[in-house]
Design brief:
The complex is a heterodimer of chains A (139) and B (101). Chain A is an alpha+beta fold. Chain A contains four helices and seven strands; from the N terminus they run βααββββββαα. The two termini of chain A are 14 Å apart. Chain B has a domain of 60 residues: Winged helix-like DNA-binding domain superfamily/Winged helix DNA-binding domain (Arc Repressor Mutant, subunit A), CATH 1.10.10. Chain B contains four helices and four strands. In chain B, strand 2 and strand 3 form a beta hairpin. Chain B starts with 7 loop residues before the first helix and ends with a strand. The chains are: A alpha+beta (139), B alpha+beta (101).
Amino acid sequence: MSDRIEREILLIASAEEVWAALTDPAWLEGWLAEEVELELRPGGDARFRDGDVLRTGWVEEVSPPTARDDRADRGGRLTFWWAADGEPASRVELTLDPSAHEGTVLRVVETRPLELLDLVGIPLPGAGGAGYGPALVAA
Amino acid sequence: MFGALADPTRRALLTAISDHRTATATELAAELPISRQAVLKHLTALADAGLLDRERSGREVRYRVTPEPLSDAVSWMTDVGGQWDERLAALGRQLGGGPTA
């Protein structure tokens, strides 16, 4: 069981340009949060600050756009977990679909896996205080 | 939880139960254009998803809407959804574009 929100936006840009907007802090700080630090590798640390709200977490998946047409994620996919202080972590999946004629569709899915958190939502020491580690996904 | 709410019949059942505060499968079948057996099937799914509480009353089971999981989930979805609407609007202003239909 999980809570889930899903949003889509059509962006007038190539998948490569949108990918830069998802992964380059200079871009990210223009739309995702005021301050963004993102270590672009699985298990990397993530930090997002917006006013006095600080979210920390870790990166699950980094798949840049690829020319391989057979891949469902060929437009690119970035997945990370984040949690504001004291709140349950949620998973954010950003997927690019380059097949639109006018541009690139960015799909956002944020999920909060309630039962999983009850069982294994244990802050991991040494994860930069990030909170929730890969055990959550493996469970 | 929201999988259980995807079906319009289930949403109608939740609304009906919530209007009456509590209801039995027989009462709901009389009110809605579906059989008692179909009502029971949906009630079981809703109860399994944590959206309904069961309460035995004589020979019947009365159902009531559990307020907490739903309101907590709804407030989470409202907050988080609103934040993404703002973020994506900002991204759209930078790159050009807008919400898909």
